[in-house]
Design brief:
Shape: globular
Strand order of the largest sheet: 11-10-8-6-5-4-1-12
Low-confidence stretches: none
Number of helices: 10
Distance between the termini: 24 Å
Order of helices and strands: EHHEEEHHEHEEHEHEHEEHEH
Largest sheet: 8 strands, parallel
Structural class: alpha/beta
Radius of gyration: 18 Å
Amino acid sequence: MIISVSRRTDIPAFYSTWFMNRIKAGFVMTRNPFNYHQTRQISLRPEDVDVIVFWTRNSAPLQSDLKLLDDMGYHYYFQYTITGYPRTLETATLHPLKAIDHFIQLSQQIGREKVIWRYDPVLLCDLLPVGEHIRLFSKIAGLLAGYTERVVISFADFYKKTERNLLRISELNSRDIMQNEADYLRVSEAFMMIAAANGMEIRTCSEKAVIPEQDIPHGACIDAALIEKLFHLNLSLKKDKNQRAECLCAHSVDIGAYNTCVHGCQYCYATYNHQQAVRNYKQHDPASPFLQS
């Protein structure tokens, strides 16, 4: 079993104490995000968990606990997002240079092959035109060179709740880069060149083919091939049917909850009500078997 920690919230950044309590207890309780009363108990015992995939913007609160995970025999790797977007869009994330420092420390601690940089999502708007994305991507890639082997990007999806949050930002005009071939090609070609120049393979996440012969290669975030390479595990993993059709991820069990991340990213599909997320964060009980009681 692969445990996803978590697509729905940043557990390493905000709930690391809770997570380690659940590791020590050997199980976690989750709720169906569409039915509050439907719950499930998931084993976190080392013998039942093949791999843990962490998703974060700030690994620092969890890093001191990683040795315990190692001693208990867990396999894990990190999907680590650093974008450096303006505060209008990312109201409470770490300063990108601080995030890069933590990324480098984590890479040195567990190995660069286990820390994957995410520049995600690529949101095209007045504050972030194509040229600014290329500048940011190049800057961050240069600082992370030698500390990761892979970068994953995705282009922003305009879900209704995401659009609603973006529309609240005064005079912000955003647009779908996938509908503009020239912009798409410019970003894709630049990103591929920058990644290669910094010793990184580049992959996309859950993207439809636009120009197949010129697309960035499509990848999986929960990647069966990477898991086999890193941990010598051949798990015969099936595609995760709970994700979008374009998603190539292997099946996993997510232990997070929506509206619990307080990074304040205005484009986030998993936190579509920041005020509710703040309330949930304040009410969180680290001793509870549920992330959100």
